[in-house]
Amino acid sequence: MRRGREQTVSRVPEGCKGTRHRERLCIVVACEDAAEAARMGSQILKVHIGTLVTYRKAEDIMLNAPAGRVVLIILAADDDLTRLGKTVAWMRRRWNRCPITVVGDKGNAQQELAARSGGASYLTRPVGPHEWAALVEHVLDMHGKVGKEVEELG
Fold it and tell me: Which of 76-90 are b and which e, b meaning 16 or more Cβ less than 10 Å from the residue's Cβ?
């Protein structure tokens, strides 16, 4: 049984100089639903040039952490509340400055409370393309990359 990293997608525009793998900005996604992960990934890659690493479960990230410089973590794996709290706490210790966003169903106040208690943001399904773009652009702007990366896309 294969555990851990499910898919890694890198996009580097032609003409860009390559950077070492560890210097590339990495967005990590944990999502059990393959269709949701694909939609999420396509929206994220529209505004992010770098590496997108997807996992099926949030705990797989702890077992097989990505090698790149993690700048955003998105958890949409619907883990139980205890596991979610422990996972967010571990990620907060591992990547203490990295924004964490939990995606859940509308009306799931317990999940939202668990996410926010651990310092994570909370988005409700369905998350629209503009919300993904705003989230990723905010993170890239924090790292001084948004102008450069969006310009390279054009």
Answer: bbbbeeeebbbbbee
CATH number of 22-146: 3.40.50.2300
* Secondary structure class of 46 (helix, strand, coil): helix
Structure confidence by residue, pLDDT tens digits, 83-135: 999 999 999 999 999 999 999 999 899 999 999 999 999 999 999 989 988 98
Asked whether 50 and 28 are in contact (CB, 8 A), the reply is no
- The rounded distance, in Å, linking the Cα atoms of 59 and 116 is 18
pTM value is 0.78
Q: State the amino acid at position 128 in one-letter form.
A: G
Residue 19 to residue 103: CA distance in whole angstroms: 31
